[in-house]
Amino acid sequence: MELFETLKKVTLDSYRIHHLVAIFSLVYVILKISKLIVKRNEWIRALETFPGPPKHWLFGHVREFKQDGNDMYKVVKWGESYPLAFQMWFGPFVSILNIHHPDYVKTILASTEPKDDLSYRFLIPWIGDGLLVSGGQKWFRHRRLLTPGFHYDVLKPYVKMMSDSAKTMLDKWETHSKSDESFELFEHVSLMTLDSIMKCAFSSNTNCQTVRGGESGTNSYIKAVYELSDLVNVRLRTFPYHSEWIFQLSPHGYKYRKACNVAHSHTEEIIRKRKEALKDEKELGRIQAKRNLDFLDILLCARDEDQQGLSDEAIRAEVDTFMFEGHDTTASGISWTLYSLACNPEHQQICRDEVISALEGRDTMEWEDLSKIPYTTMCIKESLRLYPPVPGMSRKLTKPMTFFDGRTVPKGCLVGTSIFGIHRNATVWENPNAFDPLRFLPKNSAKRSPHAFVPFSAGPRNCIGQNFAMNELKVVVAQTLKRYQLTEDPMKKPKMIPRLVLRSLNGIHVKIKPVDLVP
Description:
iron ion binding, oxidoreductase, membrane
């Protein structure tokens, strides 16, 4: 009987505890939602001078984006109705001021305001708190320590390595050149740019373009990058996934962690091997006597004025960041440039003639050749205008910001820059959807705002690797045109989709023929 009474008392106490926990949980949720509603009302008032397209009370503008290849054009269309900037809502509580005009973007890019703590926060488990997402003094210190890795003297020997990687890819394309069928080139280009980044930045020959599966899982790394990019986008568009614990418990969260492990294993192996090699060689001079300095050398040996280097965690974050930024964004730029030239045969031929003249019988590019192809460079820039590899970016204000027309947004506001929207803004660019490389003649560029064309961002937080990227774009495009004639496949038009970089839902397809066989 005593045992029964004890069990009854324990059960009753347990019930009361669970009941109290349920009440406290309900109160917490109600308070949390109330706080969000108050915050939502504050943002509605703060952004009332920036009207935007009609929104759903719960989903905001999320359901307007169908992921069908037309979403980018929708933002441009909205920009026609709401000049300069307009508000966009992701779910019921997250608002972003979307700017799409040079005079507005000038203000935000001239500042050192940090990246937002929403979409970029979702990247941190993957690429860490590196140069892309960090802010304040940490960002400033890392930027200063990493800048020597992109010096002219460091970049110069990379051209030969880029050229070799491009040649390997073009050799593989021989099979496609004998067929009348088109082929998807983004995957090929991604492997090639990864091959380049491994050679240039990490002095590592992976043979990832020729060995099936790649050494050290290089191809699995590319698949992981694709998956991580998609999952970050899914998380941004799915409001409940903004909660860390809900996302971690979801199937998408499991996939994200699994893909992160693949990416981290890849970069950790690179760092481990280099640290072993540097054990007895701590001076850059002695390393340089054996081979060219690379990004990882400078990263591992960098010291500030107090002779303090980067922590192991910071080194991995910067390697993860550069592995992604250095190959995926460049792959996007190269792929869309080749597609643009395939769609514009007259410009393609002018570029080819220019390249043949510059190379003087050679098949590969050298450092001195980069300045000898001005028309090809203008075509590359025009493609970057139409198809910016990074179609947008976002900052979070640490203080109020006033734009040139007097309108002000408060501290804490998320300000998104639609690079795609700026590059297709009809008030800035005449006939903005047409491919016209002559826009980038010096006399024409001088008439425009320097913030009308920002594929690599601008201001103090501009892309640290933009010269690296432009060099690789020139090398790959020039060597491709020297060897092959590109033609579009009208049955497989790419469907643009913004991920972390600009991709295509159905791939980017072209047909190729050897130049010497073209009548």
